[in-house]
Amino acid sequence: MILLGRTVKKLEQTYDAIEAAGYPTPAIVPLDMKGATKQNYLDMVDTIEDQFGRLDGVLHNASLLGVLSPFDQIGEDSFDEVMQVNVKAQFLMTQALLPLLHKSADARIVFTTSTVGHIGRAFWATYAISKFATEGMMQILADELSESTIRVNAINPGGTRTAMRAKAYPAEDADKLKTPLDIMPLYLYLMAPEGREVHGQCIDAQPKK
């Protein structure tokens, strides 16, 4: 397992939790997606190939919420920052990693989307547009890779107890929400051999009854 993110302290906390649970020791690759270039991702691929020789899956989970605002009041800088992390970074990373994933006998790419990536919502323009792009990226890749050994899907976690959710809904009772740990089995299923037959799907982790 390779942990990638911009905050080393958070990566180390995740590293410690994985080790404490008795799982194989992960690797840490610090990378700030806000400023990462194509060359940064190509260098990352070289590092992965040199140290591990292969890659069997990619889970995209990094996202910025941006500012919830009327469409005509969204600042260009805020919009660009969200698109950089939520869309361009995932595009460049996936593009760079595809040659390595093609070497795997059973590879996965899993994106994280949102309910507003299915249906747009007032004042959510920046984030929603980025998640519509995420779902489009997943669908295109799934179609292009349908005859390959790479399975591509997306997960909508739904309302989850995270800092981003608290920022979007500050008055909400977080204790009534699922935790990330509650949602994790779906991610693990899609990344595991058992999820081999699932391809090109956007799955709601908390489907409405």
TrEMBL record:
Molecular functions per Gene Ontology: oxidoreductase activity
Q: Name one Pfam family in it.
A: adh_short
Family that this chain belongs to: Belongs to the short-chain dehydrogenases/reductases (SDR) family.
Give the protein's recorded name: Oxoacyl-(Acyl carrier protein) reductase
Q: Which PANTHER family match?
A: ALCOHOL DEHYDROGENASE (PTHR42901)
The UniProt keywords, alphabetically, are:
Oxidoreductase
List, alphabetically, the InterPro entries matched.
NAD(P)-bd_dom_sf (IPR036291), Sc_DH/Rdtase_CS (IPR020904), SDR_fam (IPR002347)
**EC number assigned by the record:** 1.-.-.-
Q: Does the keyword Oxidoreductase apply?
A: yes
Q: Report which superkingdom the organism of origin falls in.
A: Bacteria
Q: Which organism is it from?
A: Vibrio cholerae
* Keyword match Phosphoprotein: no
